[in-house]
User: Fold these one by one.
Assistant:
Number 1:
Amino acid sequence: MILLDPDLYFPNRFQFEATPAAGILLMWQKPSCLFPPEVVETALAAGIPLAHHVDIGVAHWRCPVDLEWMNWLLNRLGSPALPRSMHVEAIVWAALAMRFGGGHLDPRHWRCWHRSQYKRVLRKLGASGARILRSENLRHVKCFHAGGEAKWWLMEAQSQGILDRHQTVTTSGATVPFIELTPPLYRKQQRLKEWLRRSGYYTIFQQDYGTYSNRN
């Protein structure tokens, strides 16, 4: 079974990786999609291991669905009062990853959008989304997950010939092992985010999806 998000772009002719006989394959993201914090903290407080750097763009899964365990997990996370946030899905996948094993798809071939500091500055200076996507090296990429604001830039970038590389990429990449997001590491990351919030960083580089949706 291969699950695909709607905001994926396939810039080359490619071949999917073989789904493992056991375990899960997920995309790798430099930060992570594990939000909102209160649900992550609930999972960690309950002793539920979570995989770090999980991205939910693509998932390969051959495991049988253990509905009893899934119901247990959702209840421990706070169902039916869970926030209506798409990122809760990533927390569920992170828990599944640590329970069933597997690994990340090779990020050299399965690329997830990362809103780096450099890209934030470019956007603040008025660079178009298409120009920012031009910096992505997609020559050997099978799949590009255009998360966040990047999804609104795909049409413009494609019309300018930025995305399609017309290569054939059939090589199977190396699987990157899952690593656990430990409570100390998560607390450290949250302290940094709180410091950035207090310093005004998020005010300066606030995401405006209304603007992004117009692809200005």
Note: The chain has a mean pLDDT of 90.
Number 2:
Amino acid sequence: MDYIDLFEKIGYSVAGLLGLGYGIKKFWKSKEKTDNFIAIHTEIHELLTELRLSGKSMRATILQFHNGEYFMDGISMRKFSITHESSHKGYASQAAKFKNVLCSLFIPLLNKVIDDKAVIYQIESMPDSYAKHFFEDENISHYSCLPLKNKNITVGFILLQWHFDFPPSLENEHAVMEHFKTIKESIQIQLSYQKN
């Protein structure tokens, strides 16, 4: 065997070991990202459930803004979708109904999100609109919403809903809404931990 063959075999062996090392490193980084993702979203779901239980609401959801499609004139379609949901037993999920929803259909709701007030609103006081009819069809009597922000940009909102048979307890509204604000802050922190 000559030295050229020996150096060639050593080169292949070193390259193989480096490739294996790179693969192992990538695997552990991927596992770390997956573990981080699961931990963040588990905490968010736990916070939503705590909020739903403390407010005695039927549903607590996080809806986040996105786009992905364009109108014929090139203007982006503004949409939102449910990304997290906690529902009281016996109430159907709204995740499929709030998927890729045009923001323009829910302007009365989005106006309340922009107001950024921890208040319980009655559906019957909403202006006649698609949003009002949607919530009436879902048998929602009351709702509350607060924006979720990242770097001072509204990226979504939390929506609490109460059913006609499960109305909010308005005598302790202040305490419930203070807790809502605290949970909102915790959820914003968890969302900020996400990495691209």
Note: The chain has a mean pLDDT of 85.
Number 3:
Amino acid sequence: MTRVMFQLTERQLRKCSPLEIPSDEWFRSEWKRRHGGKETGWGMGKRDWLLVNLKNDPEYQRGLGQGRVDKARGLDYSEERTDSAYNLGYYRGYTGYESNRRGWDAVTQERFDAEYVNC
């Protein structure tokens, strides 16, 4: 089966903004301030912050959509970019496709299939 590339819609692009990742020093100081001077654990705080804020990154959203499209078309999993936001989105879209699809309404399923699967 041939590969179809996922394209973000204008609405999706309007909701996205490139993610500005603060420095490690900022995360350390914020963690220390919020945890009474304790510094251990700031790395997990940074990870949690990134996971919450990646949903607004256009490359993450592009990877998420491409992973879903590739899984729906029966293609093998592949990480082809060096951008970690794209690859994380691709992984989550590919591995969570069946679960996500069960949560879509009938109109969304039909639109997705018409645009990316049955073309």
Note: The two ends are 11 Å apart (CA to CA).
